[in-house]
Design goal:
alpha/beta, 5 helices, 8 strands, binds zinc ion
């Protein structure tokens, strides 16, 4: 199986350094993806902004991302936003993906130690970013949540779950991707 060609799409006002780092880590740390960063920034639609929650409605952003990247020559599109994202019924989400689809998004907002009142730690922040990116890409590859706490497909209820898990797929999840 060849590598999966992924476009990393910056959404709105997101750190270019972080997006570049994510692109590099996806290429270097995993042998599954071939990632490229888009040099065009896609603005976040203000229609998706909920002023009461001060968050963006993730499904709205995902839909736009999918539509604008329809004709691009990539297997998967991963949007990266700095903004905090939500779906109805949840306080926040780290990311969202189309199960077995083409598009996914992640938010960097709650991956920063500063968000939890802790000291800035770029290494930790980047590792969390990689985990959330691989997790959402895993959903686009048809994977559901995994019960193995160490597997990247384990559901992160909080950042502590994210820190517990690895950035890689467990052998069972990996096998399911290969079989797809
Ligand atoms: Zn998930
Ligand atoms: Zn797994």
């Amino acid at each position: 199986m060849g590598r999966i060609k992924v476009l990393i799409q910056p959404l709105g006002d997101v750190s270019e350094e972080a997006v570049l780092k994510l692109t590099e880590m996806l290429n270097v740390k995993l042998d599954l993806f071939e990632a490229y960063m888009s040099n065009r920034r896609l603005p976040l639609s203000e229609k998706a902004y909920n002023p009461l929650r001060r968050q963006y409605h993730s499904p709205h952003i995902l839909k736009i991302l999918c539509r604008v990247s329809e004709n691009l020559d990539f297997d998967r599109i991963l949007g990266v936003a700095e903004a905090d994202l939500y779906v109805r019924g949840l306080n926040f989400i780290f990311g969202e993906a189309q199960l077995g689809g083409r598009c996914a998004i992640i938010s960097l907002c709650r991956l920063k130690p500063e968000f939890y009142g802790e000291r800035s730690d770029k290494k930790l922040f980047y590792l969390r970013m990689l985990k959330e990116a691989v997790h959402e890409l895993g959903h686009t590859l048809g994977l559901n949540h995994c019960r193995n706490m160490k597997c990247v497909m384990y559901f992160s209820n909080s950042i502590w779950d994210t820190d517990m898990k690895d950035y890689r797929f467990c052998s069972q999840c990996r096998e399911k991707i290969i079989l797809n």
